[in-house]
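In response to the reviewer comment on reproducibility (Comment 2.3), we provide here a single inverse folding case reported in full, input and output, so that an independent group could reproduce the run without further information from us. The structure tokens appear first.
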């Protein structure tokens, strides 16, 4: 590489090391084809995804990685020479800072690139291009701005697509998307026999008229006992410790700088793509949704989320681990404040998997940090009189309160009400 200078060399070595590390992890996990999605590489390298795209192109030219054609998101694989190169050269100890002058998109006010722009936001929902085949006159539509300007009076009025735009924006801020899986499980397995009989009418009240509950700012906290067969059979998850929230002043500054770098024009689109790929948006995987739906209380919570979703309300469903994962990610990359505010004020927050055992096994600093987040969210929801539904695992309540800490437990009670036993008490044999 004759004409590469120090800046490029350092970035190349750093990104190659990140790819090699992910590749090794894939080997340990026994994953077959180790095609690494670029957003994951960017996360591992703690760099802007677009910087990583430029660097991987360079690495591909050098034969150290291979780009997987037509993959979305883009993927790379490590080649044999790449593996040798990564092993031979020690990676820099910390991430090199990309030179903003070389990456036009890192400069503030970069023009919105048409390739990464969000098509949802650029074209009106009622534009003929989006029209389903067979429908008649699509009617009036805007130029993608959400507003229609009257040719005669020069006055603008909102387009029919504007409520849809506002809803999409709201859901993006909030994360914890109600996926098709949640909708299906909420429908399929609500109110099964393991639910404590006293809860059946309460859950029905929520699912039958969710608007009334949300308008009243009602709360519901169901806790599952350890005799519940579903709890007994399942393993205990651990909190993700790939990334830690910033704790020292230096870490906060680095996180703020990274967040600042993402403030250019297409940051939102970029962030969304990264979130979808990295699950930092707080979306539950299919496996996580299945786990939620295994207990009667969990599937009841999914049914409530489903009802709110169909009622067009702002609703998010997070598990304790997905909430942790998402907030840690955002606190390091930017977007934390906005997400926190959305979590504090959304119509409905469904928080599941608040597992006493997970809390007990987490490191002290993880618990402290998580407690702080839960309290901030709970206080906000209480103050704004917004509905909160919680599903926890832990009984008796004293043990659950101790695992959460008394203060956090108290705050959550203010938002969602005192926990109710969600499991049917077993009849003596
Ligand atoms: Zn429109």
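Designed residues, in position order:
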């Amino acid at each position: 590489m004759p004409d590469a200078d120090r800046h490029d060399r350092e970035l190349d070595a750093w990104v190659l090391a990140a790819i090699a590390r992910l590749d090794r992890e894939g080997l340990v996990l026994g994953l077959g084809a180790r095609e690494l999605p670029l957003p994951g590489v960017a996360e591992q390298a703690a760099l802007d995804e677009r910087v990583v795209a430029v660097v991987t192109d360079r690495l591909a030219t050098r034969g150290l990685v291979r780009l997987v054609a037509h993959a979305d998101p883009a993927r790379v694989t490590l080649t044999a020479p790449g593996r040798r190169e990564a092993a031979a050269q020690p990676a820099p100890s910390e991430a090199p800072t990309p030179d903003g002058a070389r990456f036009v998109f890192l400069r503030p006010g970069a023009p919105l690139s048409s390739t990464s722009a969000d098509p949802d936001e650029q074209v009106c929902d009622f534009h003929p291009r989006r029209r389903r085949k067979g429908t008649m006159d699509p009617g009036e539509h805007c130029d993608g701005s959400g507003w229609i300007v009257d040719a005669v009076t020069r006055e603008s009025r909102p387009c029919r697509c504007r409520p849809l735009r506002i809803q999409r924006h709201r859901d993006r801020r909030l994360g914890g998307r109600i996926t098709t899986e949640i909708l299906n499980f909420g429908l399929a397995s609500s109110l099964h026999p393991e639910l404590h009989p006293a809860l059946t009418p309460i859950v029905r009240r929520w699912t039958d008229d969710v608007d009334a509950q949300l308008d009243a700012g009602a709360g519901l906290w169901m806790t599952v006992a350890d005799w519940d067969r579903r709890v007994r059979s399942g393993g205990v998850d651990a909190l993700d410790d790939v990334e830690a929230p910033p704790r020292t002043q230096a870490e906060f500054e680095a996180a703020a700088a990274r967040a600042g770098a993402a403030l250019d024009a297409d940051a939102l689109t970029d962030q969304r793509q990264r979130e979808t790929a990295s699950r930092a948006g707080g979306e539950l995987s299919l496996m996580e949704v299945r786990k939620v739906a295994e207990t009667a209380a969990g599937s009841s919570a999914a049914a409530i989320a489903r009802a709110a979703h169909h009622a067009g309300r702002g609703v998010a469903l997070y598990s304790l681990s997905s909430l942790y994962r998402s907030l840690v990610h955002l606190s390091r990359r930017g977007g934390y404040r906005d997400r926190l505010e959305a979590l504090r004020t959304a119509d409905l927050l469904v928080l599941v998997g608040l597992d006493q055992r997970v809390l007990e096994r987490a490191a002290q600093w993880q618990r402290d940090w998580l407690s702080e987040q839960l309290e901030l969210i709970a206080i906000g929801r209480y103050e704004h009189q917004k509905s909160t539904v919680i599903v926890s695992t832990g009984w008796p309540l004293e043990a659950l309160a101790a695992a959460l800490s008394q203060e956090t437990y108290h705050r959550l009670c203010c938002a969602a009400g005192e926990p109710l036993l969600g499991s049917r008490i077993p009849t003596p044999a």
